[in-house]
Amino acid sequence: MTSHAPRSDLKDLGQQLGLMLRARNSVIATAESCTGGWVAQTITSVSGSSDWFNCGLVTYSNDSKVALLGVEEELLARHGAVSEQVALAMVDGVLARSGADCAIATTGIAGPGGGTVDKPIGTVWIGLGVRGRKSTAKCYLFSGDRESVRHQTVQSGLAWMIEELEEAS
């Protein structure tokens, strides 16, 4: 588990990602649960984002993960929504359905309730997909209140996507 998020301003991360996507003539999509659309909002807060943003799906319920992203019910039953398997299925689902070149997925427990011994409050899985490459997911354990956990999730997802696109260059 990664225990901290990068210390970057969301607006700066959104702008940096937008510049990278524009330079590559690529578009991104998001599939969000615990962040409730905050990743998409951060990306689309940048002027000109219609050039690099395809769509964002907020799949908060398990039913919506199944219906909109094609997450298998068996994965949800066996591993729970907050798991590597579901984060990967979410990112692969949004890539397949949107036609985007890359995608970020988030699923986690922002609190203040919902935590367990195995998955305490602040547990977040972020999935990342770049077309033509195998999707990956990382588990984070963030601290703080609900707002802080969600903010750190957005920071980490955007920063990680920027790193992945730099490596793909």
Q: How many helix segments?
A: 6
Give the N-to-C terminal Cα separation: 27 Å
Number of domains: 1
Q: Name the poorly predicted regions.
A: 2-7
Order the strands across the largest sheet as they lie in space: 2-1-3-4-5
Structure, described:
Helix 1 runs parallel beside helix 6. This protein has a single domain, classed as Maf protein, CATH 3.90.950. It is globular and about 45 Å long. It is built from six helices and five strands. The longest helix is centred in the C-terminal third of the chain and has 23 residues. The chain has about 170 residues and is of the alpha/beta class.
List the helices and strands and how they pair.
Layout: H1 10-24, E1 28-32, H2 38-44, E2 53-58, H3 62-69, H4 73-79, H5 84-98, E3 102-108, E4 123-130, E5 136-141, H6 146-168
Parallel strand pairs: 1-2, 1-3
Antiparallel strand pairs: 3-4, 4-5
Index terms:
5 strands, Maf protein, alpha/beta, 169 residues
Compact summary:
The protein has 169 residues and is an alpha/beta fold. The protein has helices spanning 10-24, 38-44, 62-69, 73-79, 84-98, 146-168; strands spanning 28-32, 53-58, 102-108, 123-130, 136-141.
